[in-house]
Amino acid sequence: MDVLIAEDDLTTQVILQTLVTAWGYRPVVTSDGREAWEVLQQPDAPKLLLLDWEMPGFSGLELCKKLAEQADENPPYIILLTSHAETDRIVEGLASGAHDFIGKPFDKAELQARLSVGRRMLEMQRKLIDAQQQLAYEATHDALTHLLNRRAVLKALQALVSKSMSEHSCMSVALVDIDHFKRINDSYGHPMGDEVLIRVAETMQTCLSADDSLGRFGGEEFLVAIDSDPDGAARLMEELRTKIAEIPFCLADQTVNVTVSAGIASLSGDDSLRLDDLLAAADRALYQAKADGRNQVVL
Ligand code: GH3
Ligand code: MG
Ligand code: MG
Ligand code: MG
Ligand code: MG
């Protein structure tokens, strides 16, 4: 683990550097608070900080305050080094964002122990953040296709509808349903059906731009929130339909032909259509595509 040492006294600096290296840390050394601040702005900055209270540029205390203002979701762990270890100073340091302090001259074993506490706290913080990110991902993504799930893609759709309203621009929504998917399951088995869902999702994703959102709406049905007018949306969905129909899905030594049908509904920024109405219109168009023979896009 990297440790930032910000200490203007060269002798202390060398001692700290030698000690933390012997304890298995990688020291990053600065002699000035401003330089330390610059190091801390780097993407992979050290998270364990040993800051001298009194130094040029910014003092250790000022650094604590500036770091607290940044409201980092993965904040560093700060140990203040001070030659004035009076209670009111310690209180001021801790109140300004420091997590711990050590008085100068410091005891080596105590410093090592305090650094270990910092390392443990940072490891715990990292685990919590990772778990939180994993939960947030799972709450918004489909476990099979890794596309946005129904709730998340509806949220993206709502955001696009709101943007279209406020900018008086056009947007579209497409509902895409795999044709005769039940037959694929029945002929090749459910695991192969799952594989087809994954492949269709991947193929669709490659056709979309960053402004469009794709999600699994349910079973073998997908929703695309498209940031364009009906013509643009129809072109896009036609491209997507052709691509899926033309690519042979080679799965476990078998070639499965897959086609999709799509229904599109659009909003011209001046409409005041509700989301439900828009989805109902797309669903009607999809129903029409199915009724007209499948493997087609209906606007
Ligand atoms: P249509 O062309 O009218 O859409 O016919 P279809 O067979 O695709 O439609 P239907 O609604 O009759 O059947 C959809 C099937 O999709 C039924 C269901 O078992 C299957 N399915 C839904 N979710 C999954 C899944 O996650 N994995 C697999 N393998 N099958 C699924
Ligand atoms: Mg100093
Ligand atoms: Mg159906
Ligand atoms: Mg279907
Ligand atoms: Mg369906």
Automatic annotation (TrEMBL):
It holds the Pfam family GGDEF. The keyword Signal does not apply. Its cofactor is Mg(2+). Residues 2-119 form the Response regulatory domain. Keywords: Phosphoprotein. One of its GO terms (cellular component) is plasma membrane. The modification 4-aspartylphosphate is found at D52. Residues 169-299 form the GGDEF domain. It catalyses: 2 GTP = 3',3'-c-di-GMP + 2 diphosphate. It comes from the Bacteria. Its EC number is 2.7.7.65. GO terms for biological process: cell adhesion involved in single-species biofilm formation; negative regulation of bacterial-type flagellum-dependent cell motility; phosphorelay signal transduction system. GO terms for molecular function: diguanylate cyclase activity. The keyword Phosphoprotein applies. This is diguanylate cyclase. It comes from Neptunomonas marina.
